[in-house]
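Write out the 3D structure for:
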Amino acid sequence: MTTTATTTTTATTTTNSDTRVTVLGLGAMGSAIARNFLDRGYRTTVWNRTASKSTPLVEAGATAAATAAEAVAASPLVVVCLLDSTALDEVLASVEPAVKGKVLVNVTSGSAGQARANERWAGERGAEYLDGKIMGDPPYVGTDRVMFPFSGSRSAFEAHESTLRELGSVAYHGEDAGLAAVEFMAQVALAYELLIGYLHVLKLVQAEGVDVVEFTERFAGSLPAYPALLGSMGQAVKSGAYAPDLGSLDVQAALMDDLIAHRESLGVDTMRMREVKELMDRRIVDGHGDQGFSSLFEVLGGAAAQV
């Protein structure tokens, strides 16, 4: 698997001058993508299973195709933005005769495995494939408030980079088509983990009679310290050398008992704190109580053998 370093694009590097682009799928995000291309002067062809969704775009200058295959035939670059992988499979099957020689840019949500399968499908039919994911909301398409990680065909990315950059902040993660999905899934999962933890803490803070807005402001003020900590933890996981970040596990485990007891006394969920304590205890029993929090990586499911 190729793991070429991520490249974030900040300048146009393509010489491609063809302004034709097709957008398949006109939900909220697909429509925003198509509208953005139109506003920036691209000759845009659109298709949607429910044809009426194309009306506002046609009124703005787009060309509506009668079929998905007809839409694919109209442009060298085809952006596919559908609800899910089931819808994607159905549409790809319907455009199979038209994809030869095209660049397919799929920004439909899906797994890394699906992206690699889509790339194989495209390659077997003479098309180039880029997998992309969307990190942001439709109103912000075309601004740096939306991030688009891409992976797959390097030649396709380089040829159409300037067009893709019209959509927002773009990064190329390598020739393995699954890497954009890996980035997306990891970023989104981490956000959910953080936010559900935050909400649980607000339950605790509120139960103690503390103003949740004022607490949030104080916590937000501590966030600038986290990038350095995260960087050191990432290096520790990569190297397998675990310094006592946040203190040694021997000390941290005792603190966990206090955190769990505090939550129990207020009727606040303890599941996450108990999970952390269990991992710490396992690591200590294995003789690594002098190491830090990052060493818990070694006892997570699917992690490497313990050091």
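The first helix runs from residue 28 to 39.
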